[in-house]
Fold this protein.
Amino acid sequence: MSVEQEQQWITGGEFGRERRQLIADGVPDDATEFQELRSRVRSRDDYLFERYGRPYLNSHPGQWIAIALDGRVLTRQTAGEAGWAASEAFGPGNFTIRKLAESPGHAVGL
C-alpha cells in the first residue's frame, strides 16, 4: 500500500540529523526551531493514524498499532511489542504508534 500524500513526511533519519544539528548549534530545547521540528512529526503521525489506523479501532480494540510512512500496519498487544516490531520492520523513527482506543494514546516513535 502506498501513501498518496501531499507532502514529504519527515523520516526518522531526517529528524535525528535536524535534532543533532540544533543541539550542536546550541539551540535551546524549548526554542521555536525544536517546536517546529516536533510539529512536523506530530502532523505526520496524526495523518498516518487518521488515514490508516482509524479503521482498526473496531477490529483490534485495546491493541497498539504501528503505522509506517508508506501505510504498512502492524498491531501488537503492548506498546513495547509494537515499537520493537515497528523499528525492526520499518526502521527507527519511520512510524507512528498509538493505542487503538476511543482516545488513542501514543508513544513517540522518534
Helices lie at 12-24, 32-53, 56-59, 79-90. The chain has four helices and four strands.
